[in-house]
Amino acid sequence: MRFHLSSEQVAIQDAVRGTLSECWDMQRIHAFAEGEADFDPASWQALMALGIGGLALPEADGGAGLGLLDAALVCEVAGEQAAPGPLIGQIIAAIAVASCANPATRELLGDIASGEQVVALALDGELVSCARAAHLFLTDDGAGGLQLVEAGDGVEIEPVTATDRSRPVSRVRFGMVTAHPLYGAGDPMVQRLRDAALVLIAADSLGGAQHCTDLSVDYAKTREQFGQPIGRFQGLKHQLAHMALDVEPARAQVWYAAYAWDAALPDATRAAAMAKAHLCEVYTRTTRAAIAAHGGIGYTWEYGLNYWFRRSVHNRAWLGSPATHRARAAELAGW
After folding, report:
1. Are 120 and 136 in contact (CB under 8 A)?
2. Which of 16, 32, 66, 180 stands the most exposed, by the fewest C-beta atoms within 10 Å?
C-alpha cells in the first residue's frame, strides 16, 4: 500500500504546474476576469498539448492508460493555479465516450482527447462554465441517461454575471438539438461518471485550499509589524496552523475517493459524495481565513485572493451542496 505519490505522478503535477506558471500568471488572470471571454485558448492548448484530455483513457484509445486518481492530481494543480477552461468536463467526457458502446459517438473520442472539441459539463441545471466556447455539452438526456449535445441550433446560451471569475458561466437551455447518446437510464456508468465529476471538483478544491494556505504562510514570513514578521505573533500562528490542519488531512480523502473509483470499490459512490462535501467546505473556510491572515491587502482586487474565494463558492454549489452530499453519504451508509 502506497501512502505517497509515485515519481511519475509527481512529474505529472510538476509538468502541469510548470505549464500554467508560464501561461497563466496573475496578470493574465486579471486580464481574463476583466474581459468578456469565458475561455482562454492559450492555456487550454498548452494543457491539451500535455495530453491531459486523454490522460484517463486506455492506451488502445490513444490515451495515457492512467486513472481518475491521476486526473484528480491534474485538477488539483488546476485549482491551485485557478486555471480557466472546462477541464473537468473534458476529462469526464473522454472517459464517457471511451466506454460508450455507440460507434457514432465513439468517433468523437479523438477530437475530445486532443482538446479540439471542447466539452462543457452541463449536469447541474442551466448554469454551465465556459459554455460559449464549448463544441459539445455533456448533459442529461431527460430520461435518466447521459448524452453529448452539439453546440449550435437548439442550444440557447445567455452569459450571466456569476461569482467565479476564473470559469465564467452562462445560462444554457436545450431545445431541438443534435445529440449523441452515451448511456441510458439505469446504466451503472451514469452514476460512475457523476461520481467522477464530484471527485474532480473535490480535487480542484484541494488545490485551491493548499494554494491559499501556502500563500498565507509565505506572507506571514515576509510581512513585518512592530519590527518583526507577523508570523511570529501567536494569534496568526494558530490561525495558519488551523488552516494547515484543515487542508492536509483532506488530501487523503480526495486520493481515496479517486482510488475507490478506479478500483470500483463498493463504497466508491459514498467516498465521492463525502470528498465533495468536505473539500468544498474546507476550501471556503481556507479562503476566508487566508483573506483574514493577509489583512487589508487580502481584500484588494489587485492581490487576487478573491479569485480563489470566488472559485470556492462556485465549487461548493456545483453538482450539489455539502449538505446534499452529506445526506447522500448517510443514506448510502444506511444511517
Report:
1. yes
2. 180
Query: Which CATH number among 1.10.760.10, 1.10.540.10, 3.30.565.10, 2.115.10.20 corresponds to the domain 7-183?
Result: 1.10.540.10
Average pLDDT of span 28-42? 95
Q: What are 317-334's pLDDT values in tens digits? A: 999 999 999 999 999 999
Q: Which three cell numbers stand for residue 216?
A: 498565507
CA distance linking residue 69 with residue 261, whole number of Å: 8
Is the confidence at residue 2, as pLDDT, over 80? no
Amino acid of residue 335: W
Q: In the 8-state DSSP scheme, what is residue 140?
A: E
Report the CATH number of the 188-332 domain: 1.20.140.10
The mean pLDDT value for 277-286 works out to 98
Q: How deeply is 268 buried, as exposed, middle or buried, from its count of CB atoms within 10 A (0-12, 13-18, 19+)?
A: buried
Computed over its alpha carbons, how large is the radius of gyration of the chain?
A: 20
Output the pTM of the full model. 0.96
